[in-house]
Amino acid sequence: MADNTPAGSTTDGAIQVGGPQQPIDARVSAPASYDVADFPVPHGREEEWRFTPLERLRGLHDGTAVANGGGVKVEVSAPAGVTVETVGRDDARLGRSGKPVDRVAAQAYTSFEKASVVSIPKDAVLTEPVTISVHGEGGVAFGHQVIEVGAFAEAVVVLDHTGDTTLAANVEFLVGDGAKLTVVSVQDWDATAVHAAQHTALIGRDASFKSVIVTFGGDLVRLHPRVVYGAPGGEAELYGLYFTDKGQHQEHRLFVDHDTPHCRSNVAYKGALQGKDAHAVWIGDVLIRAEAEGTDTYELNRNLVLTDGARVDSVPNLEIETGEIVGAGHASATGRFDDEQLFYLMARGIPADEARRLVVRGFFAELVQQIGIPELEERLIAKIEAELEASVA
Amino acid sequence: MATLEIHDLHVSVEAENGPREILKGVDLTVKQGETHAIMGPNGSGKSTLAYSLAGHPKYTITGGTVTLDGEDVLAMSVDERARAGVFLAMQYPVEVPGVSVSNFLRTSATAIRGEAPKLRTWVKEVKGAMERLNMDPAFAERNVNEGFSGGEKKRHEILQLELLKPKIAILDETDSGLDVDALRQVSEGVNRVRETGEVGTLLITHYTRILRYIKPDFVHVFSGGRIVESGGAELADKLESEGYEAYQTKGGVTA
């Protein structure tokens, strides 16, 4: 094992070209479904569960977690012109982006009582973001949110997660033709929270979808950002940033389903880890189906391990069923900030704590700049600074 | 005038079967303006001396003293030593992912000088120093030592030497792995700093090649963890023709 690879880290990757015997969707233990009963209770050896400590899911995976009314408080604030509704299970606008792909997402779909539907009308260009604040109040909750952006509308939606809860949720993004949607999901949970969610985006013709996932808090966070294209010309940018501390499990499982010609996707996730049993998991599945000619895709994951005792599992998977594409690539690397780097910086007069901050700030800065929303960049940098103040001694 | 005084320095490292003594009583005084070449065979402890002076945690000081103008260097942390004026140009500079050269240089200069350099003069200062070392300006935006060639790493070390202006510069095998052009340019950089008369230089090398470009005032032969002979520049000529063999028996190199 190379010197700069932390113990226990894996950076396996695979590129398959031609018809794979087992496409990405078939590797999971059950086909996607709205009904939790269609999924067996995972035992932990399944491909999609093998990195997740099931015992820390507090029963979200086996049906023992039951909503108790004191789970989360959801508040939506939206600029004028945006419709915000709370609807029941039978609302026809729910479930259109796609089915839940694992048992916890299906449990959420089967168990939620009320859903929030946020509609941004056709042609509306919002100057203020829509903020959906999800505040945990200690109990168990199942959530469902739909964000629908009409044709040629432009919006920024911020999902702000704070407090303590055990939450399973589905969030749907329906991006109309030519529309532009940026979603920022911040997981700023208390250290005890458990959060599992599927984010599914259905991208219309020539529409743009940008997802920025920022995970700092929680005991266990397991997010499943997924992109499907409804028509040609769609573009998805999926960015992620995580800071995994001592004892935290933060798992991001991405899937981009190129089933439509002439669509683009770009994935970049970066994480820093520190402390004993900090565990980050990144799965990047990209499938280019035979019909998706003209696809252009790239995915990247970088991890910076700041101390001993942390573990990263980074697994990019790229499956290509047609050669008629513009480009496809992936990269994954896990490096460590080690004593030699610390010595080098200190030997140039830089104190130890500043040396660590310098490295972490630099590592994230590149990604933060790609996000392209100045106010958000400032907030993220402030958040990273706060995380560093709090935890990097 | 700044003076580095090393007296009876003993240093050990942790080995498989307990601590192993590498330096066995080093005595050396380096004054501002002087250049001392330390020459010796592989394994004689030259690099251990360099890293011990800079404070690398791998090395344990088991005896002796090191002072800079009377201040106890051994009591200082690594960054304190650097701020006190000790600079180590490393044989194998370390990659620092995510930190650009320009950010690194500025953070370092701020720490050493005690205040952030004024942006306008700083940019000019860096640009000038890079030009003199024949470094591409694009270099400043690359991550520290990441993907640098051997020559680029050494130029980058000497760039820092020029910008940080230490009292005592320890150059650990700065000549290793350089082709003739790079060796000349790096040596010229060192000479520019020496010509200010404000730095005491400890030039650690295995080969006499670099001494054609950097003329030492004193040459010390290092063997078996201590200095076994000292002289002027003529001692280097002797080493060039006779090699280290005589010293390896005399110095009692442990097998």
UniProtKB/TrEMBL annotation, chain A:
It holds the Pfam family SUFBD_core. Residues 1-13 have a biased composition (Polar residues). Residues 1-28 are annotated as: Disordered. Residues 136-363 form the SUF system FeS cluster assembly SufBD core domain. Belongs to the iron-sulfur cluster assembly SufBD family. This is Fe-S cluster assembly protein SufD.
TrEMBL record, chain B:
The keyword Endoplasmic reticulum does not apply. Pfam families: ABC_tran. The keyword ATP-binding applies. Keywords: ATP-binding, Nucleotide-binding. GO terms for molecular function: ATP binding. PROSITE patterns: ABC_TRANSPORTER_2. InterPro entries: AAA+_ATPase (IPR003593), ABC_transporter-like_ATP-bd (IPR003439), FeS-cluster_ATPase_SufC (IPR010230), P-loop_NTPase (IPR027417). Residues 4-249 form the ABC transporter domain. Belongs to the ABC transporter superfamily. Ycf16 family. This is ABC transporter ATP-binding protein. It comes from Streptomyces hiroshimensis.
